[in-house]
Amino acid sequence: MRGACGAKLLGLAAPQAYSAAMVHVGIGYDVHALLAGRKLILGGVDIPHAKGLDGHSDADVLMHAICDAILGALGEADIGRLFPNTDPRWRNAPSRIFLNEARRLAGVRQGKIVNVDATLIAQEPKIFPHIRQMKTNIAAALEMRVEQVGLKATTNEHLGFIGREEGIAAMAVAGVDLP
Ligand SMILES: [Zn+2]
Asked: Is 56 in contact with 97 (CB distance < 8 Å)?
C-alpha cells in the first residue's frame, strides 16, 4: 500500500491519476401510482390486474429504474430529462425505447453494460410468475444476455403506500465498463 497504487486504493490519487478504465456503477429508483383503468406493464410484461400504473409513457416502473441506473453509471441526466413527460412522442411509449437509448448512450462512450440488478416492490399482484419474461425483455432491450440481468420482487408487508396498493416502486443498480 505504497506509492500511487496504494494511494489510489485509498481514494487519495491525484485527479490526473484517475483511470476511467473500470466498472462504473449507477443507482436508479422510480415509483408510479396505481390507477383503475390503466394497463399494468412491468418489465415489458402486460400483467392482468385490476389497476395499472399511471404515467405519460407505459409507466413501466421497473424499466425506468433500470434506465436511471445505467444513466447514473454514465453520469448522464436522468430519464425525466432525457424523455420529458411533456413530449407527445413519449405518450404511452413502450419503455423499452428508454432502455434502448440508455444502451445507445453507453455505446457512444464505448461502454459495455456489465450487469443490471433490480428489485420490484409491489404488494399485488404476484410478480414471481413473470420474472423470467421480464428478464428476457430487459435483456433484449439492452442487448445483453439474460444472465446479466438480476431481478427480484418483494411486497411491502402491507406497510405504507405500496402496502395499501396505491403504487409500485422499483430500485436498480447497473455496472457499466467504460474504457
Ligand atoms: Zn417512471
From this structure: no
Note the pLDDT tens digit of each residue in 93-138: 899 999 999 999 999 999 999 999 999 999 999 999 999 999 999 9
- 168, 38 Cβ separation under 8 angstroms: no
For the stretch 61-71, pLDDT in tens is: 999 999 999 99
**Å from CA of 57 to ligand 1 middle:** 8
Cα of 5 vs centre of ligand 1, distance in Å, is 41
| Dihedral in degrees, nearest 10, Cα atoms 39, 45, 29, 99 | -110
Q: What's the grid cell of residue 3?
A: 506509492
Within 8 A by CB and 6+ apart from 178, the residues are 20, 21, 22, 23, 24, 74, 109, 110, 111
Kindly indicate the confidence band of residue 88, based on its pLDDT and cuts at 50, 70 and 90.
confident
67 CA from centroid of ligand 1 (Å): 9
Residue-wise pLDDT for 141-165, tens only, equals 999 999 999 999 999 999 999 999 9
Residue ranges of domains in the chain, CATH in brackets: 20-178 (3.30.1330.50)
CA 18 to centroid of ligand 1, rounded, Å = 34
Q: Which residue is listed with cell 500500500?
A: 1
Q: Which positions ≥6 away from 10 have C-beta within 8 Å?
A: 1
